[in-house]
Amino acid sequence: MAGKELNEKVDLIRCDACPVLCRIRPEKTGACDRYGNFDGKLVRMDPVVVAQKVLDKNGEMVPFGTNADEWDGSLVGNVPSFVTGIGSTTTYPDYKPAPFIISSVHDGIDMVTVVSEGVFSYCGVKVKIDTDAYIGPEPAAIRVNGEQVGHVTTAEYGSQMLAIGGVRHLTGGSKKEGNTTCNTMMRLCNKEAVEMSIDDGAEIVVQAGKAPIINGVQEERMRVGCGSATVGIFAPQWHNFVDEVIVVDDHITAVLSEHQAGKFLDMPPAGIRVRGRRSTPGRYFQVADHGAGWGGTNIVDPLDIIEKIEPEVAWPGLRLLMVSTTGQDSAYFELDASLEPVKKKMSDDVKLVVDRIGENCEPALCSVMFMGGAGGSLRAGVTINPVRLTRSVKETVTGVTCGGAPVYVWPGGGITLMVDVNEMPDNSFGYVPTPALVAPIEFTLPSEKYNEMGGYIDRIRTIEEVLDNENVRSIRWNNRHSWPLSKNKNFEFEQDA
Fold it and tell me: 78: which DSSP letter?
C-alpha cells in the first residue's frame, strides 16, 4: 500500500498517490478525499467499482442505472465481472505498476486487464450543445466564477460546441484559474449542472444528458437542418399550398422559389428578395446578426430580412410562409394589392408541414466528452516498454475502456482518447489538487500479448482474488456496450494463422 509514516509522534502519513504528497493526520483524509490515514495506514476511501453482467428474473440483461434503488452494491456470485478503474487508485510515480493487473478467462482465452485511475493534466472536455440558439462568437472565452476555463469553438450541424479545460488552463494561468478549471471539468464529467458565462454571449447551464438552459430559458429543439436543408426536405409538402417559403437561419437562409428544390418543382419566381450575401441560387448568408430571435438570428419580425418585393415579378395574393429551422417560429402572409405582406391565418395544410419540421427536430441536449492523453505513468504502469502499449492499442490488439465504457482513440502518436461521460457510471471522475483530473482507464488484451509487450507478469492476480480481498462495489453492466473481454478479429486471426 502506498504511503509511509513521516512522524511517529503525531502519526502523520505521507500519501504518494499523486505529486501533491499530502501529509495526512490520523482519522483524516487528504486534499482529494480519496485517501485517508486510518489505523496508521494509508487507506483508499472509495471502493473499486465492478461491473457485473446481471440478469433480471426474465433472463434479460439489466444495465446499470435500471432499478438502481433496488441495488445495494453487493457482489453477485458466479456472473461475468469486469473490474473498472473507478476507485482503483493511481500509478504515480511513473515506475509503479498499475494497482490491479487481473487475469480472467473468456471464451477459452486467457485475458489480462490492467486497471488504473489516470492522473490527467493533459485533458479537456468537449461539450456539444444541440440547439439553434446563439451562445456567443468564436473563440469567445467561457468563464466560471469569473475565471476562463475554455472557449467557444466551431459550430457543427445544428450544434454549438465548447472546448473546456486543457493543460494551459489547468497549469498555465493563476492557481485560481487552474482549480476552477479542474472543478468545472470534474463536475461536467460527473454529469452535474455547471453555470457558465460566455464573453459577448449568453449565460448558459450545461449538464450531460440534459437540455441546455440559455439566458434562463430551457431549450427544446435541435434544428432539423440549415435553411437550405429545410427547404430541400419539405419543398414537395409545401408545393401547391404556398407560392414562396423563406426559412430563416443565421447560417444559410433559403428562398424556395429560387432554390434548386423550387426549380425542380417548376415553381415560378416570386420576386421576394432577402438581405444578405447570395451564395448559390436560393441560399443566402448573413441575412442578420446572431441572436436569440428566429433561427439563431437577432430577427424578431421576419419581414425585416426582406430587402424588396419586385413589382414586375410578384403578384397580389401571393402566399408567403416564413419559418425557422426548428418550426418554433412561423408566420403566414399574403401580398395585398400594393404588394405589401399582410399576416393571415395559416391554413391547416401549411401548418401541418410546419409542425412536421418540429416533429423532425431532435430534442435539445448537452453531450459531454472527456478527452485525455494517456501517457507517462499510465503507460509505464502497464509495461516497462510503454511504446509497445501504444502500438498494441493502435493495432486494436489492446482494447481501451473508461469505467467499462468504449472510447475513441485518435489517430497519430500517443494514446489520445475520447469518451462520452453519459456512457460511464455515475461519479467516475475525481481530482488531485495539482490540479489534474482523475479518470478510470482499463487496458484489456490476451495474456500472451501482455507478456510479449513486457507487462508486469509477476503482479497479475486472478479476478477471484480481487473480488474476494478488495473493497468493491458492484454495478450492473451497461448492456449497450460490448464486453471488453470478448475476442477481437486481430488476435483471433493471429491465433488461427
Answer: T
Q: CA-CA distance, 256 to 307, in Å (whole number)?
A: 16
CA 257 – CA 251 distance, rounded (Å): 19
Q: What is the pLDDT of residues 140-197, one digit of tens each?
A: 999 999 999 999 999 999 999 999 999 999 999 999 999 999 999 999 999 999 999 9
- Beta strands, E only, 121-228: 123-130, 141-144, 147-156, 159-165, 194-198, 203-206, 213-214, 217-218
Name 279's Cβ contacts closer than 8 Å, sequence gap at least 6: 252, 285
Contacts of 238 (CB under 8 A, 6+ apart): 245, 256, 321, 350, 353
CB 169 within 8 A of CB 134: no
Q: What is the pLDDT of residues 270-292, one digit of tens each?
A: 999 999 999 999 999 999 999 98
307, 275 contact by CB (below 8 A): yes
Q: What is the pTM of this model?
A: 0.89
Sheet hosting strand 48-52, strand order edge to edge: 81-83, 48-52, 472-476
Calculate Rg over the CA atoms of the chain: 29
Domain spans of the chain?
4-45, 49-121+367-496, 123-221, 233-359
Residues 6+ apart with CB under 8 A from 179: 433, 435
